[in-house]
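Extended Data, panel c. Modelled sequence:
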Amino acid sequence: MKLSVMDKLLKTEQDRSRKQLLRQLEYVKRNGLPGGLCSDLAEITGVTECLVMSGRHESEVIIKIPFAGSTFTVYLLFYLKEPWMPPEFSFSDTCFMSAITTKELEEQVLVLNNWNCTEEDLVAQLLHQLLQFYKQHQLTKLESDDVLQFEYQSLLNTLKIGDGDIEVIVSNSRSQPSSMLIRLPLSLQDVPPVLVDANPGQTTAMLQIVFQSAEGVFIPKLHLSPRVENLIGGSNLLALPSVPPGTCLVDYVERVLELLEQKVRRCILAFEMRKQFIAQVLCQFGCAVIEYDAKKFSKIILMCEVKDFHFLIFVTLDALFPQQSPKVVLQSLYHNNSKGPFSMEVKDIPFHSHWNSEEMVLRMKEGVMSKVGNFQTTSVRNFS
C-alpha cells in the first residue's frame, strides 16, 4: 500500500521527533541528572522499546530518581506528531499529583512555558525542575510535622550544611514512614592523593534515616562512595553506633560523622607511619634494599647475608599499621620446592604500636637475625 505525500511527511516528522527525543534522553544518561543527592543514579526505562517501534505516535519514558532513600518515579508521555508540545507526565507519588495545581507547575517548572524541542538538554531541564518542585513540596509538608521540622532545622544549623545536603520525604500514611537522606560534610583534603587517586569519583558519605514513629525513633543506614570506601573500608564493615530509645538525631549524626573523620585520620596517620618505617629500613639496611613501594609505602624487599647464607626479607605493612605489626617473610635464594623458593614467615618479632619507627625497625632486625640460623637449617635439611 502506497503512502500519500502527507503520510510520508508525517512519517518523516515522527522519525525526526523520535531521533530528537532519543538524543535528549541519551544526554540525561550521559551527563546525569543534577539537583538531587543521588539523582545522577536515575534509571531510565522504556527508551529502546518505544523508540525503535515505528508506526507509534507516542513514546512513554519512565525515569526512576533516587530521593531521600526512596524512589521518585516520573512518567513522561511524548507525542511524536507534536514535538513542539511538552509531554504529559505523572508521578509515583499520587499525593503530590493531587496537591499541585496548573499555576504552581507553570511557576515552578519554567521549561514548560518555553518548550524548545531542539534543545539537547530539554528533558534534563524538565526532570531537574520537576525534582526541585517535588523537593519543595516535601519541605512544605515538613511544616506540619513538628518533630521532623525540628530535626531538619537542627541538622542544618549544627552541621552547617544547606538545603541541598538533605532530602526529606514526609509520610503520607502509616504504611509509608518518613525518611531523610543527609550528605555528611566529610572532607578528604588532607589525605595523601596516592591513597584516593585510584577512585577519582566524588567524596560522598550519605546517612539514610527512616523514622519508625512520630516520636522520632529511627533506623540509620550509611552509604559511602567508592572513593571513601576504598580509603576507610565499606559501610558494611563499619559498625554504626547503636540507637537507644530517646536518641537525638542531631547528636547521632554528629557521632557518625566523628566516626568517619576518625577513620580518615587513622588512614593518614597509618600512611605517615608506614613512610617513616620504610625510611628507617632504608637507613638501617642501606645497600641491602632491593626494592620498595615508594607510593603507598606498603612493602620493602631486602637481600641479606649471614655467614655466607644469602636470603631475602619481604616486609609488608597493611592498612592497619601500626596497630597491626609488620608481616616478615624470609626466602632462601638456594632452596626450592614444588611451590617455588622455600620461605618462612617470622613470628613473635617484638613490636609495639607506641614505639617510634627507629625502634620498630631495630627490633625487627634483631628478631629476624635471631631466626636466620633456624631458617637456614630447615631449608638445608628439607630442600637440599
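The domain at 140-269 is CATH 3.10.110 (Ubiquitin Conjugating Enzyme). This feature is highlighted in the accompanying rendering.
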